[in-house]
Amino acid sequence: MDTSADRIADPWGARTPYAPGTPWPSRTDTHLRAGIAEQDVERWVQSASLLHSNGDAMDIAVREGRIVGVRGRTADRVNRGRLGPKDLYGWQANASPDRLTRPLVREHGRLVESDWDTAMNRITARTRDLLDDKGPGSIGFYTTGQLFLEEYYTLAVLARAGIRTNHLDGNTRLCTATAAEALKETFGCDGQPGSYEDIDHADTIALFGHNMAETQTVLWMRLLDRLEGSDPPRLVCVDPRYTQVARRADVHLAPRAGTNVALLNALLHEIIRTGRVDRAYVDAHTVGFEELAAMVEECTPRWAAGICDVPAAQIERAAEILGTAERLLSTVLQGVYQSHQATAAAVQVNNLHLIRGMLGRPGRGLLQMNGQPSAENTRECGADGDLPGFRNWQNDEHVAELAAVWNVKPETIPHYAPPTHAMQIFRYAEQGSVRMLWITGTNPAVSLPELSRIRSILAQERLFVVAQDLFLTETAQLADVVLPAATWGEKTGTLTNADRTVHLSEKAVEPPGEARADLDIFLDFAARMDFRDKDDGPLISWHDPESAFAAWQRCSAGRPCDYTGLSYQRLRGGSGIQWPCTEQAPDGTARLYTDGITYAHPDTCESYGRDMVTGASVEPVEYRSLNPDGKAVLKAAEYLPPHEDTSADYPLQLITGRTVYHFHTRTKTARAPELNAAAPDVWAEISPAEASAQGLADGDLVQVTTPRGAVRARLRTTAIRDGMVFLPFHYGYWDTPAGHRPPDDVPGRAANETTVTDWDPVSKQPLFKTGAARVTLVARRASGTGARNETAGSST
Questions:
Q1: Which contiguous run of DSSP H or E holds residue 71?
Q2: What is the model's pTM?
Q3: Residue 248 — φ and ψ, nearest 5°?
Q4: Tens digits of per-residue pLDDT, 638-667?
Q5: Which Gene3D superfamilies match (predicted)?
């Protein structure tokens, strides 16, 4: 058992080394409120993590109707009892005294407390008026990656078949959209091919833009235990910062921001040049190899070195490791997804696995990672830019099938164009065609790029904003109606992690005051709107989490993300289970594509793909011509320079990212004392050489300026590549003395004051790692001030 008091200084705890091909040993991590011992706990309630995407299973300790701690679940396949810092301490936010407990409505320019009938009547009245006057396209929904599956599915039905709007997306657009799109481009369908258990078997692990040590601390514990055991795997790390992952890597490649495609094309070039291609696998299971080989033929390591500013010899060494691996696992995250040519780069990682035949066997895994606990559910349920059940909006049979599940006419479901992505929804609101925006569990006034623009959109008098959240966030402060929501531990539902493991999280305590579960709020809205199916029955017939789950099972039946073999009862007491889980696979499915490519056939695929440069949708007839037999597509991509480059005025590349101690905009983690004390304020990182060139020192107050805005932060010199500045994106304004953003002409605290309104043409994911900036001195460090020394370095 690990009950170490300081999992802030040591986020990963004690080691339990193990050998390849053997089970990961268990270890029970526990943290209880001061003064509470295990014998004082009245009951333990099953749950899973809500502050990252790993899916750590845990039990919630309850005493006298309050959450008093957590412990890891040793029986679970994901974490084997381990918990990370956000798991161990983050639960304390539930009891924060500033929780929203009653609805708020705007009266004479101010938010005042109200009651549920008044708040919901305002929402339904505005909805009906807009539907009558402007039509469904005047209403948009922007949700989160932290609800439960049952809530996403209900939202998708009421938005797409009730309101009939195409404008529904999640903040998963900021973190996981490229993962989904890359999988669709290559395999015709979303769904992670690999499993966390591939760490137990791999002889080589490559992490592309994925600081696992901080974003998925428990997964890093698993990898650390392999590294400390016999016959450890070789590591390749691609990250411009010298993170904990980079420190353990055999090869660390630190490219210039925005050059991932050039680097990956060079790796593919070397693997093909040295004859390390599994031609039998390529011929049997892929199309497009000749085009890929032609694209990368001239992409030598020397060529890439000139673009990426990485030594050619390092690229060659990395290619040798990847090319000689017998069991290769690759993971990809925000360093790829939020950078230039995001989807094109992520697809090249897929290509690397395909040409090496590294799929479908233990240790041969591919994980296009997620950033949020239930990001996978948004994609499955259609609460983002997809249709539920991984159905294809361009396939009339898929739309008709979904219409039959919902008992509506096919024309009820918008499918005249791709579902609208988040950045376009906000653009429509800016232009005036979207007049109502319902925001659930997310804080775009801090998390979206170019915040001065986002604030001006949300503050428009013509835009009716609903904010459904736990706290009065920066976004909620701008809303017309604020709905107090229940959260993890206060409601029941399922959530699916980054390797398709479904967990059940049960209600442990009552929510504060009048706060309600998101599912109950959506069901209330649907009932007040009296949404009907084609037979004049209620469109949404379920009434609680378990009946909503049953409805989702019917929708998922026969689709790649098939849940029909699962139930709440099966998910109680033991381990989470990976979908697809069916009568034929009652214990779930560890890996996809164990016997060829399953979901890429033109009649089955979720997507026909997009053009890598323009993002235009590929037409069905074109896809059928390219891939009539439904094989994996080896999709080549030419390197293109980033849209914004450095200049004399802005000589540094700006990237943003995470820290191990916080999640998103700190609405929960900053209310956990240990987590907040570990990283209480924003900082900026540059290399020692950059600092020396400007006469700067650790702890100096500096200003990071871009063409969009400026941030003031304490300086840290770290082992980041020269010519780059890093800002953590978590920090907003709710916990500043004023409680809100200062005037726009004053430098801010939020990294997204500085980021650019630009997105990947394919995945539509915003580019938080491609801006140009300068760093200037504001004030010298005063004695005794300065930022906390980094434990691990924040994620890119």
A1: strand 66-72
A2: 0.96
A3: -95, 0
A4: 999 999 999 999 999 999 999 999 999 999
A5: 2.40.40.20, 3.40.50.740, ADC-like domains (2.20.25.90), Dimethylsulfoxide Reductase, domain 2 (3.40.228.10)
